[in-house]
Task: inverse folding
């Protein structure tokens, strides 16, 4: 009697296990988080700072591209720029952009790029007007960066065009609408870096350290790695 009852209980248990097998198979073991994710989750939040507001992001996102993207609405004339320049810029750059002391020259320099001391200005070197506008807007005047309004920045840029004989009229007005129409004299002398195609044939996969070509000659060697002189051997400077 006991054996029959035991067989019946064993049979019933087997049926329960088999019926529950699909449910057990559907339950996936919990996946372990990646080490980096686990480390980040484990780190407590410091409670410092907050997400940047849209207006705060816009205040920093002020770069201007050569195609005009990023230009703020505004306008300014050469005459207005002259007045601002004399008040805000002339003490460093001179009344006519000639540069005072060691401060940069902002006008002239045409034909000087091949000389020993080239002057890189809007009229002699820079290919895009956005370079001047972006820098003035972002970093000038010295000591009071980003204090100029958009209209003042347009006026100063227009005055630099006038100083470099790119525009001739004191009433010329520069704005976000005609900005990209201004072409600088040296723009055509710039080109994309083409070394990937023009010089690739001369490149070697490995630097020549030994067994170099016969025509390769060593012209000098670094005899002393520590080139910082000590107090005894340092040259005297007047």
Result:
């Amino acid at each position: 009697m006991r054996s029959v009852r035991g067989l019946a209980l064993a049979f019933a248990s087997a049926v329960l296990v088999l019926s529950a097998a699909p449910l057990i198979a559907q339950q996936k073991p919990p996946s372990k988080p990646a080490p980096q994710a686990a480390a980040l989750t484990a780190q407590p939040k410091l409670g410092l700072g907050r997400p940047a507001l849209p207006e705060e992001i816009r205040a920093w996102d002020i770069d201007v591209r050569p195609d005009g993207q990023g230009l703020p609405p505004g306008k300014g004339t050469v005459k207005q720029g002259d007045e601002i320049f004399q008040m805000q810029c002339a003490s460093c750059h001179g009344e006519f952009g000639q540069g005072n002391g060691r401060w940069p020259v902002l006008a002239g320099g045409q034909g000087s790029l091949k000389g020993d001391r080239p002057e890189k200005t809007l009229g002699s070197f820079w290919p895009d007007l956005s370079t001047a506008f972006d820098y003035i807007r972002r970093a000038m005047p010295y000591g009071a960066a980003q204090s100029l309004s958009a209209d003042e920045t347009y006026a100063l840029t227009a005055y630099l065009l006038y100083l470099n004989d790119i525009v001739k009229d004191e009433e010329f007005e520069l704005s976000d609408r005609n900005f990209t129409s201004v072409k600088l004299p040296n723009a055509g002398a710039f080109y994309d870096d083409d070394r990937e195609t023009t010089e690739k044939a001369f490149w070697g996969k490995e630097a020549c350290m030994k067994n170099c070509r016969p025509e390769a000659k060593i012209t000098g060697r670094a005899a002393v790695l520590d080139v910082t002189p000590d107090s005894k051997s340092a040259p005297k400077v007047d």
Notes: DSSP finds eight helices and two strands in the chain. The first strand starts at residue 75 and ends at 77. The CA atoms of residues 22 and 28 lie 12 Å apart. Strands lie at 75-77, 173-175.
